[in-house]
Amino acid sequence: MSLAVLVLTIAAQAASQAIPKAELPKRGRCVVCAATSSDHGEERIVAGLRYRGTAYYFCSSKESVAFAADPESFLPLPLPRSMPAFDLSDGVGVRWNGDAFKGRTILVDFWASWCGPCHKLKPMLDRVRAKHRDRGFEMLSVSIDEEAADVERFLRKGAFPNPVLHDTAQTWSAWRVKTIPSLFLVRNGRIVAEWVGKVDERTLDRAVADSLEPPPGG
């Protein structure tokens, strides 16, 4: 661990104060689970921390420790917001960077060849893409596989109808991806919606349709 990371970790831990058990609610939403695909809604609360004046609750001591080490990585970011850096090429050599996102609505899907939930979600994503593609909508399947050969081997089983990109630049880290699938709906370079783990088709379809509408006064 570098000195800079160590200093930031110590500062984050110092900024978190344990909430006495007598003051904990019986049930609530675990902030760590909410940031990952393991979100179960309200559940039994066993620990809590106060960070920068706000109380956060956890379903286990493990989640409490993880949050204390790096609180900011678990807190939801505002929407809409500018997308992080993105500069990858797809399987046919097309470069997707900030310029490629300008004036377009694009769904960025972080996945992996070994991810079962990603495979289950893909047919629904394909339907939404097909429905809105004529209006300029596109989906990028960004694989976080370590080896390009694993991606290529998986794609030989069946080609994707949309661009597939191998994340060779750890783009997932800048986008704060903690679990996959993670989906980000980007309109003109700004993230307008995001989902972790899963999203139902009606919700995604409505979000895409809304993002393709011209802005008020436009």
Question: What do these coordinates show?
Answer:
- The protein is α+β, with helices and mostly antiparallel strands and 218 residues long.
- Helix content is 33%, strand content 25%.
- A six-stranded mixed β-sheet has the order 6-13-12-9-10-11, covered by helices on one side.
- Strand 12 (182-187) and strand 13 (190-196) form a beta hairpin.
- Helix 5 crosses helix 8 (201-212).
- The model is unreliable at 3-13 (pLDDT under 50).
Annotation keywords:
single chain; 218 residues; alpha+beta; Glutaredoxin; 6-stranded mixed sheet; 3-stranded antiparallel sheet; 33% helix; 25% strand; disordered N terminus
Summarize the structure.
The protein is α+β, with helices and mostly antiparallel strands. Helices cover 33% and strands 25% of the residues.
